[in-house]
Amino acid sequence: MQVWTDVSQVPTAWGPSVVTLGNFDGVHRGHVAVLTRMVADARAVGAHAVAVTFTPHPAQVHRPLEAPPLLLGDADRLELLAGTGLDAALLVTYTLDFARQSPEEFVRRYLVDALHARTVVVGRDVRFGWQNAGDLTTMRRLGERHGFTVEVIEDVRPDDADEPGGYRRWSSTWVRELLAAGDVRAAADVLGRTHHVRGVVVHGDARGRELGYPTANLGHVAGMVPADGVYAGWLRRERRADGTPVPAAERVLPAAVSIGTNPTFDGHDRRVEAYVLDRTDLDLYDDEVALELVERLRPTLRFDSVEALLERMARDVEDVRAVLGLPRA
Ligand SMILES: Cc1cc2nc3c(=O)[nH]c(=O)nc-3n(C[C@H](O)[C@H](O)[C@H](O)COP(=O)(O)O)c2cc1C
Ligand SMILES: Nc1ncnc2c1ncn2[C@@H]1O[C@H](COP(=O)(O)OP(=O)(O)O)[C@@H](O)[C@H]1O
C-alpha cells in the first residue's frame, strides 16, 4: 500500500480510483468489511482502491477537550489498513485550514483532480467540507458534475444481528466503551483482533527487579489504554533500540500487564508495564514493544504490605498462564 501524507504526493497519472473517506480509528470489523468489499469492487473494474483518512482526528482539532481517546496510533492504523488490500492511503494532516475548504473544493482537489475517482464510497451519514456543509446529496450532485458515481454502504451487521436483544453496529465508540470498562475480550469481538497499545520501554522506579518481577514500562503510549487493572497478554518486541533483529523465538512473549498508579507504593503517575513470565534476563530498554491485552484479571489494589502484593502477583502469573493456555509452572 502506498502512503501519501499530502495530496501533492499522489502521482499525476494515478487512477482511476475507488475512494472512501473516514477516520478508521481501530480498523474494526465494520471498517474491514467495507474496505475489503471496496477493494474487490475496485479490482473488478481495474481501478485502484484508496482510503482518504486524517491525522490528527478531526475531533481533536475542532473539539480538543471532548475528543475521544484514539484506539490506535497512526502507524498501526496504516498497517491494518494495508492489511485490507488497499492500494493507497492518503493520510491528510487535518488542520483548520484544511477544514475550511468547501465541500466542492475538497472533492475537486482531492477526489477528482488527484485521485481521479470513478466511484466514491460513503456511509449514509457522510459529512464533509467546512462546517460539515456537504452530505450525501451534495456528494451525488458533485459526482454528476465531475463524473463519478456514489456508492452508499449500508451497515455491515454482525452475523447474530437478528438475535433477541437486537444488535449494535460495530463502531469505534463501542470499542472505546468496552476498553474504558476493561472488557478487552468483548473489545476483541468488535475489533476482530486483540487490542494492543504500543510504546518505547523507559526506566521506571527500579523496584520491579528487587521484587523479583522486573517490568518493562511503556513511555508515550500509542493506542487507547484500557481501565486500570492487571491483564493477561503478550509482549511483542517490534524494534530493538540498536536496530538488530529480534530472533523469531523471542518476538512474542507471554506477559502479566499492570495498568495503574501502583497505589501500594503511593504512586501518582499512571503506568503501563509488563512482566514477561519466567524471565529476568531481558534488556528491553528503548525497544519499541506492543502489548496485546487478552483478558482483564482483576482491578489494581492497594496492598498493606509488599509481601501481600508479591503473593498476589504470583497468583496473577498463574492466571496469565491459564488464560493464554500455557502449562502451569
Ligand atoms: C502482575 C502485576 C500485578 C500488579 N498489581 C499491582 C497492584 O494490584 N497494586 C499495585 O500497587 N501495584 C501492582 N503492580 C505494580 C508494581 O507495584 C510495580 O510493578 C512495581 O512497583 C515495580 O515498579 P517499577 O517497574 O517502576 O520498578 C503489579 C505489577 C504486576 C507485574
Ligand atoms: N521478565 C521481564 N519482563 C520485563 N522486563 C524485564 C524482564 N527481565 C528483565 N527486564 C528488563 O528489566 C527492566 C525493568 O526492571 P525494573 O527493575 O522493573 O526497573 P524499572 O521499572 O526502573 O525500569 C525492563 O525494562 C527490561 O529491560
Automatic annotation (TrEMBL):
Pathway(s): Cofactor biosynthesis; FMN biosynthesis; FMN from riboflavin (ATP route): step 1/1; Cofactor biosynthesis; FAD biosynthesis; FAD from FMN: step 1/1
Coiled coil: none
Keyword Kinase included in the entry's annotation: yes
GO MF annotations in UniProt: FMN adenylyltransferase activity; riboflavin kinase activity
Ranges where the Riboflavin kinase domain occurs: 190-325
Catalytic activity: riboflavin + ATP = FMN + ADP + H(+); FMN + ATP + H(+) = FAD + diphosphate
Pfam families: FAD_syn (PF06574), Flavokinase (PF01687)
Enzyme Commission number(s): 2.7.1.26, 2.7.7.2
Gene3D superfamilies named in the record: HUPs, Riboflavin kinase-like
UniProt keyword list: ATP-binding, FAD, Flavoprotein, FMN, Kinase, Multifunctional enzyme, Nucleotide-binding, Nucleotidyltransferase, Transferase
Keyword Flavoprotein tagged: yes
InterPro entries reported for this sequence: FAD_synthase, Riboflavin_kinase, Riboflavin_kinase_bac, Riboflavin_kinase_bac/euk, Riboflavin_kinase_dom_sf, Rossmann-like_a/b/a_fold
Signal sequence, renumbered to the chain: none
Family, per entry: Belongs to the ribF family.
Protein name: Riboflavin biosynthesis protein
Lineage: Bacteria, Bacillati, Actinomycetota, Actinomycetes, Micrococcales
